[in-house]
Amino acid sequence: MELWFQDEARVGNKGRLCHRWWRRGERPPGVQQIGYKWAYIFTAIRPATGEDVTLVLPTVNTETMQIFLDLVAASRPTHVHIVMVLDGAGWHQSKDLTVPDNITLVVLPPYSPELNPVERVWLYLRERFLSLRLFETTEAIIDACCDAWNRLVAEQGRIRSLCAYPWIEKVCS
Predict the structure, then answer these.
(1) Strand-strand pairing, 38-46 and 51-57
(2) SS3 124
């Protein structure tokens, strides 16, 4: 059995402001775009090892969740069973969703995002790579998400350090 955590993040035109070092008494420059173009980063992370399965897709719904679950199931050996902890989004609990045999979904209690370590990954990506940017097209948003994720993965051990909650380490040991 392996413990994994799953979540999605929406990235798009309505960017997120972040903290910047700047001269005292002056406002730092920054851009924010008003618009309604989005892309979604789907990820499942195994905190014990820092492994991940990630997709960037233009929409989020039951169909895209099915694609993602099938990818996660295919990425693991057949003898491994995945316990995947996720939030209670509608597309996670849809009757049209067919959960693969080697995955068991465990839904977190409502209003408890602090229990999902993937939330820290989203904060890190937005702070370091996705803030104060303008995106002209959905394809540009997808490219930026892919680039940000690849830069995160290139930092050896970063995913594991972001997701290593003490209670998770106790459960996994």
Answers:
(1) antiparallel
(2) helix
